[in-house]
Amino acid sequence: MQYNLSKKYEWPGMYTQIRNFVSRCQTCLQAGRAVANTNFHMLTASTPGELIEIDTVGPLPCTPRGNKFIITAIDHFTKIAWARAVTHKSADCVLRFLTEDVLTIFPDAKNILSDNGLEFKSATTLKVMNEKGIHWKFGSPYHPETQGVIERFNDTIMRKLKKVCNFSHDTWDTAVHLAIDAYNKSFHRAVGCSPFELLHKETPLFSVDAGLVSKKHLKNFRTYTRNQEE
Predict the structure, then answer these.
(1) What's phi and psi for 91, nearest 5 deg?
(2) Ranked by mean pLDDT, which of 40-54, 77-91, 133-147, 158-172 comes out on top?
(3) d(CA 33, CA 37)
(4) What is the pLDDT of residue 20?
(5) What is the number of other CB atoms lying within 10 angstroms of the CB of residue 199?
(6) Angle made by CA atoms 64, 65, 66, in degrees to the nearest 5
(7) Which of 177, 210, 201 is nearest to 72 (CA)?
(8) Which residues are in the Integrase catalytic domain (predicted)?
(9) CA–CA gap between residue 85 and residue 97 (Å, rounded)
(10) Tens digits of residue pLDDT in 168-225
């Protein structure tokens, strides 16, 4: 919160007020966890889309819409991530998720990494990825640390989801897009900015911005940040 606000706003006592506000947020206290200060991890990819990791979370409490699982994915270089609520942990759901969500951002992705779940071993999915020039890699069940990036992301997105939907078991699937948007627009220590900024080369805007400044100012702000980065 502090990182995103400081990019666009400033007022006397800002940082103290933000810390006090967050420290009193009961939802944040229940869903959050203490994060230790660690050194930056070396990136495992040298370009966007070089390595994308995919996984599934669940089963979760079944919602009125029948959703019980979340398919997640993260790009190792930019840390940009995706998540989709689904009814079944199936190969069809995985293929739709990849083609409709992930590959619309990285159509020239090089490698996809997953565990050995049956939903990832569909001959159809592997054939489609192969035709796109994408190599599918499977992590070793004896070395689960090879999926460490996606496991950490899954933990993060579940905590954000709990905050967004306030622990509601029957509406969590309607909040997945809000949780993933919050993650992608939040500061990430591994890349030194938010994944959104690294991917799009511009500062993200939030719904609150529209209520505080005019549309003309927001347009000018985007133009200004692009010019600064160029």
Answers:
(1) -65, -35
(2) 77-91
(3) 13
(4) 59
(5) 18
(6) 90
(7) 177
(8) 44-203
(9) 10
(10) 678 899 999 999 998 999 888 888 889 999 898 877 665 544 555 545 554 554 554 5
Q: Is residue 55 within 8 Å of residue 114, measured between CB atoms?
A: yes
Q: Which two tokens stand for residue 65?
A: 């819409």
Alpha-carbon distance 198 to 193, whole Å? 7
Task: Output the CA torsion sign for 188, 93, 89, 84.
Answer: positive
What pTM did the predictor assign? 0.71
3-state percent helix, strand, coil for the chain, nearest multiple of 5? 50, 15, 40
Phi and psi dihedrals of 58, rounded to 5? 135, 180
Secondary structure class of 101 (helix, strand, coil) = helix
Domains and CATH numbers, the chain: 2-33+194-229 (no CATH), 51-184 (3.30.420.10)
Q: Minimal CA–CA distance to 167: which of 74, 13, 29?
A: 29
Q: Which tokens hold the place of 45?
A: 């990819």
DSSP for residue 171: T
Strand 51-57, strand 111-114: pairing: parallel
> Distance of CA 44 to CAs 138, 193, 199, Å?
16, 17, 17
Q: Output the pLDDT for position 192.
A: 87
